[in-house]
Each structure stands twice: as structure tokens, then as C-alpha cells.
Amino acid sequence: MSHEWKIKSIIIILIIFIMIAGGIPLYKHRHFNITIVAGPGVTKVVKLSEYCKSLKGTMADTNVFILEGKKEGGKALIMANTHSNEPASLLTALIFVENAIVEKGTLIIIPQFNNSGGRNTRPGDGYPLYFEIQTDWGKKKFRMGNREASPLDQWPDPDVYIHYPDRQLLSFIDIRNTNRTWPGRPDGPLMERVCYAAMEIMRSEKVDIAIDLHGAETMFPVTNCIVAPEKSMRIATLTSLTVKAMEGFENHVEPSPEGFRGLSHREIGDYSDTMPFLLEAPVPFLDQPTGPKTMDLLLNGKDPFLLSLSKQGKLFVPYDETGWPMRKRVGQHCSVILELFRQFSRKFSDKAIIVRNVPRYAEVVKNGVGHYYHDPKKADKKRIYYN
Amino acid sequence: MYFKIGIILAVMVIAYALAKWRRLSVELSIFTSAIAGGLVGAIFGNPPFNQLARHLVEGSFTYLDVILIFSTATIFMAIVSESGSVNYVVRIIIKYFYNKRIIALLLLMIIILIPGALTGAGSVSLLVVGAPVALALNYLGIPKRKVAAILFIVAGLSAAAPPVNIWAMILCAGTAIPYVGFELPLGIPVLLLGSFTVLLLGWKKEGKMTLKEALKEIPEVPPRMRWWRVLLPFLVFFGLVAMYRIWPFSTPILGLPLEFTISALIAFLISPKKINILILSRDTIKKLLPLLATMVVVGMLQQIMTATGVRGLLSFAVISTPLILLFISLAFIIPVSEGILTYGGAAVIGIPLVWYFDSIGLHATVVMAGLSLLWPLGDGLPPTALIGRLSVMVSEYKESYWTFLKSTWIPWIVITIVGILMVVFSAKLSFLVQWSM
Fold first, then answer.
1. Which residue, A327, B35, B265, B300, has most beta carbons within 10 Å?
2. Is A140 helix (H, G, I), strand (E, B) or coil?
3. Which of A33-37, A225-229, B34-38, B167-171 has the lowest average pLDDT?
4. Would you say A49 and A40 are in contact if contact means Cβ atoms under 8 Å apart?
5. β-bridge partners, A169
6. Is B1's CB within 8 Å of A304's CB?
7. CA distance B173 to A146
């Protein structure tokens, strides 16, 4: 073997080694399942594909937890992990799934709305593959996902995405973004089918309010807020004022722009009788000018670059040495959801939604997020779900 | 943290410089830089050492789509060229427009603008029509250095031109601003700057070739070559692109790589000359390999830069710059970010910039349009220099890369000034957005 071929062989072996060593963790990540313990309030668990048959057998299919109250009332849908790199949404949804007891009305929860996105990574962005939440019984492990569905599940992308049905031109990547593919269609690309299935839940179950949980950068003007269209504006405003007055945190209201199509807070309202709300909590991890993208940054939100930018007045949320810890973000989501229910129930008393056993902001901040998750080892096996 | 990340950045720069000094290729130098950054980062704990291979593999997939488009588009064009179509088109252009120089130049500019405007990729313009246009410009008496310069600037502008501008789309997706109202803020400057560039660089006829000599010089085309054989593959390609635009909800999504492959098959089937498609594809990919490798290693570099915090430090440095200085430094920051990160630059630098400019009362859509004129310039800068290298490749310019780049200086400066002025006066130019809607 010549000298050149020896070098080439060594390089090829090295590359194969790197591919295997680097590929195995990515494969494991895609197939890792999160354990969910269905709480006392969960009365039924179905698959999203029950509302759009073509989702069956795809990576986009996901669990839908239904919590029916003893008394009839209004119906609410909570969607989390629409963007799977905004994990406060998933953690909030799981607090509801594992703890909530519905006194009146019905709660429908989809904790991993873009299941494919939750099994995707974000090439070029150096995210950790997992994050862990400290609980009273040990650490609970979660996948860190991506904003868009995996190209392994929906590919190829077009050169430009044309939104259905408004024909607005959107970035090609948005065809895999479940907050651009609303209201969706049953025979469209996979993510349009996911949104269509959710629309079918809302239409067939006559859902009154839909809450889409998100997170956004501290440098993004639309953060730490409730986004609402005209029909949801009154309840959103009352909720915002109440949480500020009673619980001491800011959560302003942003109007849903009419000219920007495909978003849940726009299309749900336009294509169903449901009132949509989109909740945004700050996620320093998503900001571009931060240090390394670590699990610590994801969970605690502390970053010296952002602190400096905050002092320069370049952030849209208050930011100090304490950062934006996960417990604060999840606590805000919990309180805002409960307050939306309360304000809705006050306005429409015949369709009241009364939920108990879910912590509010101060409790989550005090006890931590993990305090509200149950130990799967001690739970009834029939109550355990994997997603 | 500043100190640690600063050290990692310094090591990455030194590793790149050392690799270049040891005469390693651009691709291997970037790879060396990524590995060095990752290893030093691992010493500081970010990324953890056991995650280093995963980051490299994951990063290598960042531009997989672009790699597929480059490969299929180049094979498509290679088949078209091999069939004799390119020489046929060049012969016609020279025959009818040799003595109508301005019309010829403007016509050739439009030909380069169309594929890039439709796909958002200047590389597609060069890969699809670059070779025939370069030949036509040659026969119009323009030296190869200037031909490469024209191709580079106009192909870059084609990527910025509406309806598809990927930088603006990335910015819109990241800033939650609808991708609407860009037609005039992008279309007007692109047409004006494109015309200025072709006329400036192509006005002077430097060769002494007469029309007769030029026609004699152009290689003979196969006798059975006809217009329909030239046009059909392109019609199929643009037809597939247009089909999704016209009937988006009933057309299956093929994606650009498959659209190029189908068009390549058509070109192969109707070629008047027998083509060995396997050998041609192998040779084409061999030529394209350095560019494809660059895309792979740039993705790795980007991933390591983010995982170590280097990317964040650079983004922080840009956002922290005082406003006036920031406006001036856009001339450097934006092209350099493209040169290092390609489209990643729009996400890393562009998104925070747009948010910041929006918060001080500038008009976000016009700001994005202005920045979009600056990003293509970076496609001529190392380490990636994607459009620059393709321009040199299709124009068959064999001299120094820097000599080619130097000949773009006047359009480069004019485009920079226009782009920055659009950002600074974006609020006053917002009527362009209104008129577009």
C-alpha cells in the first residue's frame, strides 16, 4: 500500500469512527420516549390520528390527554411543544396532565404537539440533546427538540412555502413549522395534517378556548405576553391585568396580526368558533448573543452577554443576575392558563371550566417544576404513557 | 466567560491560519479550525468531550439541502452543456446582438437574474445559465476576469431579488414578520444595481474579435440541435417550479433537487449527441467536490461555534456596537458573516439586528431588504466564497481569485452604500412596502 493510500485509509477509518460515534446519540435521541404519568384527572388518552386518519403510523402522531369533569361545562385545549425547543410549554402541560382535576368542563391536552419536531435536532445550533429536571424522587429526562419537524418525517421542502389557504409566501422551512401550517388540511404535508387534526378536535368537540404554549427570545418584542386576536382580546386583557395585580408578574397582551398567516392565534379564530390564545415566556437560551448552548442556560436562563445587553436597554424583558429560570417561566404559564379559565368562566358562566390541583406562579417558583411530576416507578403501570 | 470564549475563538483562528500556512485546502483548514475549537471548548467543558463527535456529525448536515441542490443542478447543466445547447444559445446571442451591446448586456443580466430570483439561490443561476452567459460575454469582448465579476455580482443580486429571497425569509421566520411587501424594496435596487454592474464592467469591448471571428470561434453544435431541444429541459424545470406556485395545493412537493434531476433526464433523453451520463456525473461531482466539502465543514464549524459560545460572542459584539458605528460596520459585518456562516449569518447576526433596528423606529421590512443586498457580497469572501468560486468556475477564469475579486470593487462599494442607506432611511422608504402590497 502506497503512503498516500495509507493516509487515505486512516482518514476514512477516522471519518467512519466519527460518523458512528456521532450518529448513535442522534439515533437514540430520535427514539427516546418521555415517560408521562397520567394524573387523577385524566379520563381518556387517545391519539391525534383519531382526528386525522392519515397521521396514523407516522412520527407526527402523538398522545392527546382528555380530562373530563364531573359536571358539564366549557372545553379547553392546551397545546405544548408546538416548537419543541421551547420546553417550558411541555413542562407546563405535564404539570396539568399529572395533577389537574377538572371540576367542571373538559380539558384536552396535547403535550407534544409537534412530535416529529420533538425528535429532531437543530443542525448548526449546537443544542444539548436532552435536559433533566430535578424532582422529589430523582431526575426526569426530556428530549430537547427543534422548532421544525424532522426532515426524516416530512421532506422535501419546497423552494418556498405557500400557505394554505391564503397563498401567503413563507420561508421554505416553515412548511415543517406547526405554528405556520394552521389551519391545515387532511391531505396536505404532514405538519398541515397535524394542525388539521387539532382543528378537527376543536370543531368536533366544540372547544371554547385553545391555548398554544410557546417561548421566545428576550430580544424579541413579542415575548412574555399573551397573543390574541380580536375575539379573544377581552379575556386576554383581563387575564394580563389580573396576573400582574394579584401575582406580580408582567404578561402583556399583543394583538394577533391579520396579515400574518398560518399562526395558531390567527387561524384557529378565523376557521373555528374557538377563542385562541398564544402564551409566550422568555427563553434566553434561544437568543443569538449568548454563551454556550448548555442545559444550564436552558434551565436557568443566566447569561453574561444578555445581562450586558439588558443594561444597554436592548432586551424586551426585565433581566438581571437571576436570569429567567425555568420555574419562573413554567409558573407564569400555569398561572396565565388558570386565569384564562377563570376569566372565561366569569364571562360565560354556563360554559365554566373549573380546574383544581394545579399550582400557580408563586408555588412553582417556590417548589420547583419537578416537584409536580410523579415517580413512574411508583405509579400504576396502566397510567403510564410514553411519547 | 468572555475570556474562555475569547481563547477558543483565538485557537480557532490560529488553527485556520496554521492549516492554510501548511497549504491545506480551504475545506481542511475549516475542518481543522472546527476540531481545534471543539477540543479547546471540551477542555472548558462546552461541548462535553463525549459530545464532540455528535456535534461534528450533526453540524455536517446543516446544509444538506444546499448540497443536494448544487449537485443535481450542476449535473443538469453539465448534460445541457454536453448536448451542445450552450454553444447553440451563445451562437444565437452573438449572431443577433453582437452589435447591440447594451441590449445584449441587459438581456444577459435578466437571464442570470431569473433562476436565482425564482429559487433564492445565486448558485442556481450560475449553475443553470452561468456557463452560456459567460461564453456570450467572452465573445462580446469582455475578459474572463470581468466576466467572472459580472456573474458574481449579478448572481448575488439574483438571490436577493424577489419573489424568493432566502435571507429575508430566514429573517422573517426568525422575527415573526410576514414575508410580504418585498417586491419593490428588493426589485428596484436589484434591477438598478444589476444594470449598473453589467454596463460598467461590460461596456468596454477589450477583445479585437469581429462578429465573423467570434462565430468561427464558438464550437460547432451538433447538426440535429434545434431550439426545442435547448428550451425543453429549462421549460420542464421552470414549469415544475411554476406549477407549485400556480397550483400549490394540488401539486406534489418535489423539491429543487428532484426538479433538477427530472430536467436533467429530459435533457439527456433529447440530446442530439450521445452522452455517457455516468462518466459525466462522476466528473461533474469531482469538480464540485471542494464546494460540497466546504458546505459540510462550514456546518460543522457553525455547530462548534455555537456549542462553545463563539457564535454568541460574535453576535453580542455586533449588537453592542454603538448605532452610528453599527451602520458603518454593516459594510463589513454582513458580508463577513455570510463568508463564514453563509445563510447562518442571517440568523446569527441578522435576527438580533432587525429586532434592534425595529425597536429604534426603523422599518423592519426595508431594513431586511437593505441587509439582503449586502449578504450576497459575502458569498465572494473566504472561507466559503460560494458564489465567487462558482463564478470563477463557470467563467473558466484561471488566474488569482483575488484579482477577480478586486475587479468587483466599484459595484461592491455602490451596492454597500445602497444597502446601508436603505437601512438608515428605512422608515422614509416604507412607502415601497405599501406599494408592493
1. B300
2. strand
3. B167-171
4. no
5. A162
6. yes
7. 14
Considering the domain boundaries, does residue A25 fall inside one? no
Q: Vertex A65, ends A62 and A69: CA angle to 5°?
A: 165
CATH of the domain at A282: 3.40.630.10
- Mean pLDDT of chain A, nearest integer: 96
Q: B56-74 burial, b for 16+ CB within 10 Å, e for fewer?
A: bbbbbbbbebbbbbbbbbb
Cα dihedral B219→B97→B156→B23 (10° resolution): 30
pLDDT value for A260 = 87
What is the length of chain B?
437
- Regions of chain B short of the pLDDT cut 70: 174, 176, 437
H or E stretch covering A227: strand A225-228
Q: Tell me the torsion sign for CA atoms A211, A216, A218, A223.
A: negative
Which residues, numbered 174 to 233 in chain A, qualify as contacts with chain B under a Cβ-Cβ cut-off of 8 Å? 174-175, 177, 185, 188-189, 217, 219-222
Contact B120 A173 (CB under 8 A): no
- The set of cell numbers assigned to B269 is 433523453
The residue count of chain A comes to 387
- Smallest CA–CA distance, residue B425 to chain A, in Å, is 21
Cβ of A171 within 8 Å of Cβ of B47? The answer is no
Q: Does position A180 have pLDDT exceeding 90, yes or no?
A: yes
Classify residue B129 by its DSSP letter: I
β-pairing verdict for A44-47 and A63-68: antiparallel
CB contact under 8 A, A22 and B55: yes
Q: How far is CA B25 from each of CA B16, B261, B294, B341, B369, rounded to the nearest angstrom?
A: 10, 30, 10, 18, 34
Contact state of B307 with A292 under an 8 Å Cβ cutoff: yes
> Is the Cβ pair A157, B55 closer than 8 Å?
no
Residue B403: phi and psi, rounded to 5, are -65, -40
The total number of structural domains in chain A stands at: 1
Q: Which amino acid does the sequence have at B112?
A: I
pLDDT in tens, A268-291: 999 999 999 999 999 999 998 999
What is the span of the domain harbouring residue A268?
32-386
Instruction: Give Cβ neighbours of residue A365 (< 8 Å, ≥ 6 apart).
Output: A327, A328, A331
| Cβ <8 Å between B47 and A126 | yes
Q: How far is B55 from chain A (nearest CA, A)?
A: 7
Residue that has been written with the C-alpha cell 466519527 in this structure: A18
Among the partner-chain residues B2, B58, B304, the one whose CB lies closest to the CB of A26 is B58
**CB-based contact A126:A96 (threshold 8 Å):** no
Percent of chain A past pLDDT 70, that is, above it, reads 100
Examine residue A2 and state whether it is found in any structural domain, yes or no.
no
> What angle in degrees, to the nearest 10, is found between the helix axes of B323-341 and B364-378?
50
- CA of B277 to nearest chain A CA: how many angstroms apart? 25
Pick from A125, A131, A176, A306 the residue to mutate for testing the B interface (most B CBs within 10 Å).
A125
Whose CA is closest to A84, among A112, A59, A60? A112
Mean pLDDT of A205-230: 95
Residue A5 lies in a domain: no
3-state per-residue secondary structure call for B55-124: HHHHHHCCCHHHHHHHHHHHHHHHHHHHCCHHHHHHHHHHHHHCCCHHHHHHHHHHHHHHHHHHHCCHHH
Question: Radius of gyration over alpha carbons of chain B, in Å?
Answer: 22
Backbone angles phi, psi at A217, to 5 degrees: -60, 155
Q: Is residue A157 part of a domain?
A: yes
Give me A357's grid cell.
390541583
DSSP helix/strand/coil, A343: helix
- Contact: B309, A292; criterion CB under 8 Å: yes
Instruction: Give the pLDDT score at B381.
Output: 93
Contact B299 A124 (CB under 8 A): yes
pLDDT at site B437: 64
pTM for this prediction: 0.89
According to DSSP, the residues that pair with A68 across neighbouring strands are A106
